[in-house]
Design a protein that fits this description.
A: alpha/beta, Rossmann fold, 3 domains, two-stranded antiparallel ribbon, 15 helices, B: Rossmann fold
């Protein structure tokens, strides 16, 4: 293994993120090749966390764009501050300025509201980490627009002209795969798919994130989660749920898993009505046995 | 064992072409990315090469199995430096690649090797079957034409929804401050008019799964008419037929004369009017098509009477997977038109919790 990749993996662990070699390799390549990294995987496997850890490692700013259906340019890129423009316009008229002068005045950078994408390419202090979260929630039109920004790292504002990136940001896109990301955008990026963690990895994550939980409880929780994910579930619980649950159990002062405790706190883990209903009764007993045996 | 670059390019090109042979979409630009990645890593570390290629060639989870298999072959070919013909050169077209229903020889349902139509075509014989009133075959051409118009209207309602995005409109809609201000600036700060915006009507994708088994026979023609009407209002719709096997019909459907299309379809669907295995067919849909065709804006419509002689467990699992991904799941059931009908057929009962709406499809009232 390249030393840089091993070092990156270690540094991420130092930040509390237990990365496997696949994650470290992908992040390393994305940085070296200066390409956006598209991370896919089920909800809660730690996609967003990678961007946060990267920002901490590089000691730079994390700029986040949360995607949603109907997201448009004025929320993602820029917007003029109309109220201030209007105010300035009235003043300028009273001062008796000419039309051209007024135009130059009110279409200046001072009246431009920077949204995450513009902020990411105009940051002067150095390249930030740009997190484009849940890109699968945005629609095709936005995806096409994003492709353009990520290809050239420049933005054209009709009244101002073209703004080029001061530094090319480290871009991380995440997707829960509620829909397929278009081929063009996927080609533009490097790609990483994160699976649910193995038993060993999950135990290490628990040790790192919830050290108070102790050896026995961590082991049982990790085994319980692994047994759960082997079942057919609508929403398989992610690492985020594991950590929440461990913290909840600690608050309740539980040192190990028993039926009563699990039933009372199962809502931390399973967040789907059908899943909860199906796991009550005998099925829960079976999972619990798998978790506490051995 | 760092290979000379020329060798590397060759190996990578072969590997990419083998992947393409297995139905994994790898473009030239992906290959270039793969090469760039390989120059950055330790070529002697097999796992690192594998991980780097997965990232640079953008291998999705559904293609992982093919990738791992071919990678193992690639690596062993590189180990034996003398081997002139690495196993990569003859990619096989079978395996986990998508099934190609369109490639099936048209005609004879008996010629379907994997699907043996189970004997004793009794699925039409069931207590519910007695409830059926009349076949749509009995309608006159004028009735059919009127019905087609009605269907088109119904299809339009099912296939549209307001968009989340807003576009400028004239007259009505909420005030659009951004545009209003912009125009006011152009007029020296005077608001001469107020710009407005509203949500346009969007047409989400429809995925229609149509049961063509024996118990559905009297209704199939009517249902397919409906499907074709849907196709005309929602162009991005996808259509599947199922009975004992699942067939993607989309490539076979052309706008135009419905009866002609029906004839063509009848040739494509194996075991037309045979038995049903709803669960297995839907499970196959989930495995091969769900990720690609169904997203949060997709409406899934299932046309079936829910009379199945198979195990109901796969059906419940498949319905749940579909429900978790689609915007809405509608089930059109010809038997549901009868007031006495309750979703008691075992399959229907298993699927019912995951259906947004169960609609009668027997007539249009």
């Amino acid at each position: 293994m390249r030393d840089e990749i091993a070092a990156l993996q270690e540094a991420m662990e130092g930040q509390g993120y237990i990365a496997d070699p696949a994650i470290a390799t992908a992040l390393f390549l994305s940085r070296e090749m200066r390409r956006p990294l598209l991370i896919e995987g089920d909800a809660g496997v730690g996609k967003t966390e990678i961007a946060k850890v990267l920002a901490r490692l590089l000691e730079t700013e994390l700029i986040r764009l949360q995607c949603y259906e109907g997201l448009d340019v004025s929320t993602a890129l820029y917007e003029w501050n109309y109220q201030r423009q209007m105010l300035r316009l009235r003043l300028a008229e009273d001062e008796g300025k000419s039309g051209d002068e007024i135009e130059d005045l009110i279409f200046g950078r001072r009246y431009l509201l920077e949204r995450p994408l513009l902020r990411a390419i105009t940051r002067i202090e150095g390249p930030p980490v740009l997190l484009i979260d849940e890109i699968d929630r945005a629609d095709d039109a936005f995806e096409a627009f994003l492709l353009e920004v990520l290809s050239d790292f420049q933005v054209t504002i009709p009244e101002l002209g073209t703004i080029r990136a001061e530094h090319v940001p480290h871009v991380i896109l995440t997707s829960n795969r509620t829909r397929e990301i278009g081929d063009a955008l996927r080609r533009r990026c490097l790609y990483l798919y994160i699976e649910h963690p193995t038993l060993e990895k999950e135990v290490r994550i628990l040790r790192a994130r919830v050290p108070e939980a102790g050896e026995r409880l961590s082991d049982e929780i990790a085994r319980f989660m692994a047994a759960l994910r082997r079942r057919r579930l609508s929403k398989a619980p992610g690492v985020a749920e594991t950590i929440d649950w461990a913290q909840a159990l600690l608050r309740l002062h539980r040192a190990h898993l028993d039926r009563e405790t699990v039933e009372a706190t199962l809502g931390c883990v399973l967040k789907d009505h059908y899943d909860l209903r199906e796991l009550s009764g005998g099925e829960l007993e079976a999972v619990l046995t798998e978790a506490t045996a051995g | 064992m760092s290979a000379p670059p020329q060798d590397l390019v060759l190996h990578l090109a072969r590997f990419a072409s083998a992947l393409r042979g297995r139905g994994v979409a790898v473009s030239l630009s992906d290959e270039a990315d793969g090469l760039a990645a390989l120059t950055l890593i330790d070529l002697g570390d097999r796992d690192e090469v594998r991980r780097a290629l997965r990232t640079a060639l953008k291998i999705r989870p559904r293609d992982t199995a093919a990738f791992e298999e071919l990678f193992a072959a690639l690596w062993s070919a590189r180990e034996e430096a003398g081997s002139p013909n690495p196993p990569l050169q003859a990619p096989r077209l079978q395996g986990p690649a998508r099934p190609r229903p369109a490639g099936r020889p048209p005609g004879r349902r008996e010629s379907e090797p994997g699907v043996i139509p189970e004997g004793g075509e009794e699925p039409g014989y069931s207590p519910e079957a007695v409830l059926r009133r009349k076949s749509f075959e009995e309608y006159s051409p004028a009735d059919l034409a009127a019905m087609e118009r009605l269907l088109a209207r119904l299809a339009l309602r099912l296939a549209t929804r307001p968009s989340r995005r807003r576009v400028p409109v004239r007259g009505r809609g909420e005030a659009d401050l951004r545009r209003s201000f912009r125009r006011a600036v152009a007029h020296g700060g005077e608001f001469l008019t107020l710009s407005r915006r509203a949500r346009p009507i969007e047409r989400p994708r429809l995925v229609v799964l149509c049961d063509t088994s024996g118990s559905m026979d009297p209704h199939t023609r009517f249902l397919l008419t409906f499907v074709l009407a849907l196709r005309q209002v929602a162009r991005r719709s996808e259509i599947f037929a199922f009975n004992t096997a699942l067939v993607r019909l989309t490539p076979w459907i052309r706008a135009g004369r419905i009866d002609l299309t029906l004839e063509r379809l009848a040739l494509q669907v194996p075991d037309w009017s045979g038995g049903t295995k709803i669960g297995e067919c839907l499970a196959e849909f989930v495995e091969h098509y769900l990720d690609e065709l169904v997203d949060g804006a997709t409406v899934v419509i299932i046309l079936s009477d829910g009379l199945d002689r198979g195990d109901v467990q796969p059906l419940a699992g498949a319905m749940r997977a579909i429900r978790a991904r689609a915007r809405r799941v509608l089930w059109l059931n010809p038997l549901a038109g009868d007031a006495r009908y309750e979703p008691t057929a075992r399959a229907m009962a298993a699927a019912f919790p995951y259906v947004d709406r169960l609609l009668p499809a027997q007539n249009l009232e």
